[in-house]
Each structure stands twice: as C-alpha cells, then as structure tokens.
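ok so i was messing around last nite and threw this chain in just to see what happens. nothing serious, just curious
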Amino acid sequence: MFHEERDIITILKQENAHFHSLFDKHNELDNRIDLNGEKLSDQELEPLKKEKLKLKDELYAMIHEYKKNKQ
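result:
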C-alpha cells in the first residue's frame, strides 16, 4: 500500500501528527488482519477490514491534498 507515495508519506509523517497516527493505525490493522485473518471469523474480520479501508481513504485524501497544495 502507498508504495508510489513513499516520499510524500515520509514528509507527512514528520510534519503532521494526525497523518502519522492514522498511518500507524492502518499498519497495525494490516498486520492484525495478516497475522490473524485465518483465525478470525468473517464477523470479526469484516469490521477490521472496513476500518482499514476507511483509514486508507483518509490517508489518500491527505496525500492528495498535500500534492494539490505543492503544485
């Protein structure tokens, strides 16, 4: 995820504490899903995936806003 935006992510993580927090939460969910996905029921897994997707959308919006403001 976000590989194409690594440079911007590095900047945002340093400059924006909220972005950094969201990014960390997204990574934590990603790891939790990867490590426990097979052990969790669909009812347990679905909310985690939805939260991860919501965070991803927020992060992409912040990246897009950063790019827009740098033009």
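not much to say yet. The first helix runs from residue 6 to 15.
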